[in-house]
Design brief:
Oligomer: heterotrimer
CATH superfamily of chain C: Type I PLP-dependent aspartate aminotransferase-like (Major domain)
Strand order of the largest sheet of chain B: 3-4-5-11-10-7
Number of strands of chain B: 11
Radius of gyration of chain C: 25 Å
Number of helices of chain B: 3
Largest interface: A-C, 214 and 209 residues
Distance between the termini of chain B: 30 Å
Structural class of chain C: alpha/beta
Largest sheet of chain C: 7 strands, mixed
Shape of chain C: globular
Radius of gyration of chain B: 14 Å
Structural class of chain B: alpha+beta
Shape of chain B: globular
CATH architecture of chain B: Beta Barrel
Strand content of chain C: 5-15%
Chains: A alpha/beta (475), B alpha+beta (140), C alpha/beta (496)
Number of strands of chain C: 12
CATH topology of chain B: OB fold (Dihydrolipoamide Acetyltransferase, E2P)
CATH architecture of chain C: 3-Layer(aba) Sandwich
Number of domains of chain C: 1
Order of helices and strands of chain C: HHHHEHEHEHEHEEEEEHEHHEEHH
Number of domains of chain B: 1
Number of helices of chain C: 13
Chain lengths: 475, 140, 496
């Protein structure tokens, strides 16, 4: 236990927490009298008395509001913000510029203090916003059905793998690398207890298309009864940033043998990139944090999952769905949660997922952000990211001892390799000079890192990064 | 019209066998059977919205789920009474799932199956099924 | 009782608003060379997103926000969800730049404050619950349950105990319990409740055998009743080599007054969005930390936050990576909610949390006593036993006498500006209304909820048919859910 928290306590006010209670000490006495009791602890008379604590638990507090404000401000200052150290970090999430109107709207208590729209008649605003989000993600991905939200990209992958196995009644999922090691970890946690086998096709940069061809050819030659692949998963761009020329081939190879396809995408990239519907992906997943949600040290995030409408698939879909209907007694449109018999509160152990509380607020935020961007905005944003990434890679590549990019073409992320330096040295020296040089990658023997740009980066930030790397590499 | 036994508001057709889990199984001869759900089952589910079929030709072991009947706020799994092969499903239900509510024993049939095992011990008579329904009603 | 009128804007869909070329958020364009995409990657038809002005979008969202019942608008006695006040200081803190803008893969040296928050939250929750270790990774309660059952699995497998494939779960449990256990690969054995709404001990003992991996139980249970035999139950599970799991959905009924570990639990998940005021966000985000006893700590997800006191440095500890169940979230869970919860916990201290619990229990029992007096309402099971933070009423008499259902009562409540309780749950109570007022509601609000229910009862007995028309003063009337389920429209792309 850390020494400075245990005894921390306000000395200023008695009961500083009273503002959170609806009942005053006087009213408490009045209510007890009405109930014929002398103490609220009488309401615990049914609990074995040795279980009841005699004293409050000695955690820090209570504090007044201003003390609390000061304490957390102090802790927040220990983190280096963008003004002090510019991050070039992505890998699935990335910092985004949040327009002021969006931040203001998301402060509305009407929105963030509601819960799941169990009573649609008093939750039309929330339901409509979720439906709008679903509609815009459908437009972006070329799909038709969009989950009201899963926790994050990683859990969307886990859920998608389980769903592909349920639909096909098979139990192997092929993972085409490069994918994020974090998402792979989540996939393992989600599938291992269900007896699902994960078959990995390792690669760096682009997919190993030869290995994929070989795997599928051998699979096709097997007896029908020995064919056990439910689905295949790849990321586009790959985790190493690459926009591969093989996506169409992978999807058609898979479909030839009844294998379902899930693709993981950068949702902003779809402003200018072909939507997954065009290369016939069955399920699209991705991270919705980048749609205007604060990065917030990695959570809350937004797991996106979308597909074409196929009733059998949808009955196997995890999580909530909001649909559009009308009032019973009029033609007025109305929105409600639908197809809930898939869900845990009705189907219990046979549910398609255990998810209940999800990431609705992030979906609402993402919907407003997408509407704010509009058709033009999302194209400009996506193009702007790509322009930044290429500018940065080209400039870095001019520096002696730096290879950037290692693989191409790419979108907003690329791999750079730094010679004769360790990850630790590079990171430390860069941080001292005010940048974070991407995420360390476990490839090659050298120091390869995933460099990511964001719309928070202005040209000066990119040039600053280049100067820092130049100084570090050629000191 | 099918002859029935009446238990409160529920009809039980007497020309077929049942499962304790509320499916009916009608012998068509030649190891082929027609399956559906009882009047009691459809009334417990209320308005049926969709039937989730597996592919015709698939084989199932006894007690495996062969299809799912979805209603607005509930859903019911239909179990295989014996090892079987799915021969045919009632495709009319795709557009009109309400047929199950309107005519559970006739137009609302679910699947035609072929038995692949000889054990019929899961099947009970209409009289025995009537007792199952009575017992459930008492417990409710 | 006066009705309340909710805003009704007939607001069009955002996709039907706007024009051509209107702009709300214009991304910054830098003076950089424009890169050409590889031709095979070019999107031919740009995504058809709305083109609205900033004010147009602001009005749209503000109007829609006025068509949402929320805690900030009125009473929200939704049982099992603990819809308490969400303190505004927490919102301010969560938006500090030093928290909101940090990338989760920031090197430790520049994210000391983030790890410190995780560490402090772990420590505070350990102190409150009595457990030896806490993971903050699960992003919701159900995810915590999944972690908990994965821990059971890992523990038994590490002991070479491969036969344990069942989990015992009372029939009054939330649906997430069996769903999570099934996801972790277990079979579920349902334990019946007795006439008092608690675990039937005879049936429980009959269910004990060497296949039992563990027990998942909610205490106080979903009827708001404290399981009187909980220590005995946990002991019996331990005797047969199983593990005991507490679903912390109802932690608000005992927080600060009882430590879960003292009841004999090995594992517990907490719902930070319930007990510790993370706002519910219209359905999420939540946060579902899991606490465990010492022998299970090495199986927890990686990493845990740790503190090196010698160097006064916080760090991520991957020390148990080899035995860990891995990850259930790509990063470390819902930091923003953990932060709010920690702020709430510190603001209250042990003393304030205990008081909040006491008042929550007082409010529930006060309201229960009044509701019991209403004609057509009963509070079934365990007569005379105080409830904890919530109670379950039933309108079975209303249904039997005049064909008015729990759903009708719920819909009528909406017209009086009160959110309906949780209906038809737990499954063991017919026509259930599960009511949890929380400590945030005032005496006037409690009386108002009572008056509304009484008015509805009076109206029902004088004219039962009229009740089916509710709600009338809300943003929409009852919806055609049946047509939607038969022919789903799940996005504008599916519109016929």
């Amino acid at each position: 236990m850390q020494s400075d928290t245990g005894g921390m306590k306000s000395t200023i006010t008695e009961r500083p927490y009273q503002s959170y209670l609806g009942i005053s000490p006087e009213e408490e006495q009045q209510m007890l009298k009405e109930l014929g009791l002398t103490s609220t602890m009488d309401l615990f008379s049914d609990v074995p008395s040795h279980l009841l604590l005699k004293e409050p638990i000695q955690i820090p507090g209570p504090f007044t509001e201003s003390e609390l404000d000061r304490l957390f401000r102090k802790i927040a200052k220990k983190n280096k913000t963008f003004e002090e150290v510019v991050p070039f970090l992505g890998g699935g999430v990335r910092p985004v510029y949040i327009p002021a109107f969006l931040e203001e709207l998301m402060r509305r208590g009407e929105i963030y203090t509601a819960y799941t729209s169990y009573q649609p008649e008093v939750a039309q605003g929330m339901l409509q916003m979720v439906y709008e989000y679903e509609s815009m993600i459908a437009e972006l991905t070329g799909m038709e059905v969009v989950s009201a939200s899963l926790y994050d990209w990683g859990t969307a992958l886990g859920e998608s793998a389980r769903m592909m196995c349920r639909i096909t009644r098979k139990s192997t999922v092929v993972v085409v690398h490069p994918i994020s090691p974090r998402r792979l970890d989540v996939l393992h946690a989600y599938t291992e207890p269900a007896g699902i086998k994960i078959e990995e096709i390792h690669a760096q940069g682009d997919y190993d298309i030869d290995a994929i061809r070989q795997l599928i050819t051998e699979y096709g030659a097997k007896d029908k009864s020995d064919q056990d692949i439910a689905g295949i998963y790849f990321e586009a761009p790959t985790y190493h940033g690459v926009l591969s020329s093989h996506v169409d081939e992978i999807v058609s190879l898979a479909h030839e043998h009844g294998i379902l396809v899930t693709v993981g995408v950068d949702l902003i990239s779809l402003g200018i990139l072909r939507p997954p519907s065009e290369y016939n992906a069955d399920f699209v997943i991705g991270e919705g944090q980048i749609l205007g949600n604060a990065i917030s040290a990695g959570g809350p995030l937004l797991g996106v999952l979308a597909t074409k409408f196929n009733r059998k698939w949808i009955q196997n879909f995890p999580g909530r769905l909001v649909g559009k209907t009308t009032e019973l007694n009029s033609d007025n449109p109305g929105y409600c949660i639908t197809l809930s018999t898939r869900e845990q509160h009705i189907r219990r152990q046979k549910a398609t997922s255990n998810i209940c509380t999800n990431q609705t607020l992030m979906a609402v935020n993402a919907g407003i952000y997408l509407a704010g961007l509009g058709s033009r905005g999302i194209q400009e944003l996506a193009q702007g990211l790509m322009d930044r990434a290429y500018y940065l890679a080209n400039k870095l590549n001019e520096i002696k001892g730096v290879t950037a990019p290692m693989y191409s073409p790419f979108f907003a992320e690329f791999v750079a390799k730094f010679d004769n330096i360790t990850h630790n040295e590079l990171e430390q020296l860069c941080i001292e000079k005010g940048v974070v040089p991407g995420i360390p990658l476990d490839i090659d023997d050298g120091c390869a890192r995933l460099i990511s740009v964001s719309d928070i980066h202005q040209r000066a930030d990119l040039d600053h990064f280049v100067n820092v790397i130049d100084e570090v590499m050629n000191k | 019209m099918v002859e029935t036994i009446q238990v409160e508001d529920y009809e039980i057709a007497t020309d077929r066998m049942y499962l304790k889990t509320h499916e009916w199984v009608k012998d068509l001869g030649d190891n082929k059977y027609l399956m559906g759900i009882s009047d009691y089952a459809q009334k417990m589910l209320h308005e049926i919205t969709y039937v989730q079929f597996e592919d015709v030709g698939e084989e199932f072991k006894a007690e495996e789920v062969i299809l799912v009947v979805e209603a607005l706020k509930a859903s019911g799994d239909i179990y295989a009474p014996f090892d079987l092969k799915l021969l045919e499903v009632n495709t009319e239900l795709e557009d009109m799932p309400e047929l199950i509510n309107q005519s559970p024993y006739e137009k609302g049939w679910l699947a035609k199956v072929e038995a692949l095992s000889s054990d019929r011990s899961a099947l009970i008579t209409p009289e025995e099924y009537a007792e199952v329904v009575k017992k459930e009603l008492e417990e409710a | 009782m006066k009705k309340r009128i909710q805003a009704k804007w007939n607001e069009p869909l955002i996709t039907d608003l706007g024009g051509t070329g209107r702009r709300a958020y214009i991304p910054e364009k830098l003076d950089l060379p424009q890169v050409d995409l590889p031709p095979n990657w070019k999107r031919k038809i740009p995504p058809n997103l709305p083109e609205v002005s900033e004010l147009e979008l602001v009005r749209h969202v503000v109007r829609l926000s006025q068509m949402i019942h929320s805690v900030d608008i009125g009473p929200y006695p939704l049982g099992s969800c603990t819809m308490k006040y969400n303190p505004k200081i927490n919102e301010r803190i969560a938006r500090f730049d030093g928290f909101a803008t940090i990338h989760p893969e920031s090197p430790e040296s520049i994210s000391q404050g983030v790890i410190e928050i995780y560490y402090r939250a772990q420590e505070a929750l350990k102190m409150l619950t009595g457990f030896s270790a806490v993971t903050l990774q699960p992003p919701a309660g159900a995810s915590g349950e999944f972690v908990g059952t994965l821990l059971m699995r890992a523990y038994h497998l590490a002991n070479g105990d491969t036969k344990r494939n069942t989990i015992l779960i009372p029939d009054s449990a939330h649906g997430t319990n069996p769903a999570s256990a099934a996801m972790a690969g277990f079979k579920i054995v349902e334990l019946p409740s007795d006439e008092n709404g608690i675990v039937d001990m005879e049936a429980f003992e009959a269910a004990l055998d060497e296949t039992v991996a563990g027990l998942m139980i909610t205490n106080p249970n979903t009827l708001g009743i404290f399981e009187p035999h909980i220590e005995q139950i946990n002991q019996k599970i331990h005797e047969i080599g199983g593990l005991t799991y507490l679903d912390g959905a109802n932690y608000n009924g005992i927080v600060g007054v009882i430590r879960p570990v003292d009841m004999g639990f090995d594992i517990m998940h907490m719902n930070l969005h319930k007990t510790f005021t993370g706002p519910h966000g219209g359905g999420g985000p939540g946060s579902g930390p899991v606490g465990v006893v010492e022998k299970l700590a090495k199986f927890l997800p990686i990493p845990l936050a740790a503190y090196d006191s010698k160097n006064n440095r916080y760090y991520w500890d991957y020390g148990h990576e080899k035995t860990s169940i891995g990850r259930v979230h790509a990063y470390n869970g819902n930091f923003g909610i953990i932060l709010r919860a920690l702020a709430y916990i510190y603001r209250n201290g042990g003393e304030g949390l205990r008081k909040a619990c006491e008042i929550a229990v007082l409010n529930a029992n006060y309201l229960m006593k009044k509701v019991e007096e209403i004609k057509g309402f009963i509070v079934p099971r365990a007569k005379g036993i105080p409830r904890k933070h919530e109670f379950v009423a039933s309108v079975l008499p209303l249904l039997n006498e005049i064909k008015v259902s729990a759903n009708d009562v719920a819909k009528a409540m909406l017209d009086y500006g009160i959110h309906a309780p949780t209906v038809y749950f737990p499954l063991i109570v017919k026509e259930a209304l599960m009511i949890e007022p929380t400590e945030s509601e005032t005496l006037q609000n409690l009386n108002q909820i009572y008056e509304v229910l009484k008015t509805i009862s009076d109206h029902a007995y004088s004219n039962p048919d009229l009740l089916q028309q509710h709600p009338l003063t809300t943003s929409s009337g009852r919806l055609d859910e049946l047509s939607l389920a038969k022919a789903p429209v799940l996005s504008e792309k599916m519109k016929k």
